Amino acid sequence: MTHEEKRIYLIKELLSEESQYRYMEIPDDEEEQKKLLRGLMNIRAPRSIGSGFLKIQDEYLMEEVRKKGITDSDMLPVSPVDNRLALWRGDITTLRIDAIVNAANSALRGCFVPCHSCVDNIIHSMSGIQLRLACDEIMTEQGYDEPTGKAKITPAFNLPCSYVLHTVGPIVSGVLTENHCRQLSDCYSSCLRLASDKGLRSIAFCCISTGEFHFPQKKAADIAVKTVTDFLHSDTQIERVVFNVFKEEDYRIYKEILYV
């Protein structure tokens, strides 16, 4: 199968699962096909699927990541503040590192909105449907929504990192409170503790809660760097922490903190 044939196969298999989509026409345009495949993966409920599908999906997604270009976290320039800290503006799903952090919702099963721009959606889309299945298994066993500030770990499946750490950040719907700040700090410390306990040596954080959850960016960055720095003072397991940003404003904010 060519790469295009794999994409068409995956689309057809996912369309065939739902009677209302079974006769949907597949667009000819490559980007529209990619958008359709991602959307179908996003809305798919966590249920088992055949090994044949997973084999083709894994081959397809790993090639997609390869084409985007993989960045090795060991090659990133470090901060003069602490040589275990690094700042990187890029696609977190292309980073080779022990673990990346996903800013999840309390259901912890990924974003079900087709092709949504949140990091939760992007990570699940590039990791593959196994990630939702792994999260569903954890949450079904837990029996209740994930509390804010805690963390869970899963394999990364088709991403170049080894693991994904899932944490639920605080939602700021009005005035920022001390409780919001404490909860955000808990997200970072919970992920670091879990990574250290699992023997991981490197971790990349996205900007937790600053997107859909509306936490002020500058305050979030201050909390993130302080929490990580405080943790590293007492932990010798973690050797590299990457602050991953997507927006130019976040890059400027973190640069001012880390490269003073």
Distance from N terminus to C terminus (CA atoms, Å) equals 51 Å
Biggest sheet features: 6 strands, mixed
Shape: globular
- Identify the strand order in the major beta sheet: 2-8-7-4-6-5
The helix content is 40-55%
Supply Rg: 19 Å
Average pLDDT taken over every residue? 96
Question: Secondary-structure element order, as H and E?
Answer: HHHEEEEHHEEHEHEH
Number of strands: 8
Structural class: alpha/beta
If helices are DSSP runs of H or I spanning 4 or more residues, what is the number of helices? 8
Notes on the structure:
Strand 5 (151-155) and strand 6 (163-168) form a beta hairpin. It is globular, with a radius of gyration of 19 Å. The strands form 2 sheets. Strands 2-8-7-4-6-5 form a 6-stranded mixed beta sheet, with helices on both faces. Strands 1-3 form a two-stranded parallel ribbon. The longest helix has 20 residues, at 178-197. The chain is of the alpha/beta class. The chain has helices at residues 3-16, 30-43, 51-68, 119-127, 129-142, 178-197, 217-234, 248-258; strands at residues 71-72, 85-89, 95-96, 99-104, 151-155, 163-168, 202-205, 240-245. The protein has 8 helices and 8 strands. The mean pLDDT is 96.
